[in-house]
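Example record

One chain of 80 residues, shown exactly as stored in the release files.
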Amino acid sequence: MVANSEDRPGIVRGFRLEFVQLVIAGLVWVVGSAWNTAFQSYAQEHGWLRGLGPFVYAAVLTTIVGLGVYLLKRHGTFGG
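Predicted structure tokens for this chain:
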């Protein structure tokens, strides 16, 4: 007997949730890549950013992502 979505609603729901999370992760990667390219172009055109820009960018990005993960965990999104 082949199980269908009516037999195993939890499995289907879990699959859908996992699929949506993977799609979102892929879209975030694309957006992050676009911002990275834009920042690299900007940094190459502006003198003071040529040397310091990548480090400032990495520090700011790390802070923003760290804060975002902290807030998501605090509000129970990750079950933590």
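Notes: The chain has a mean pLDDT of 76.
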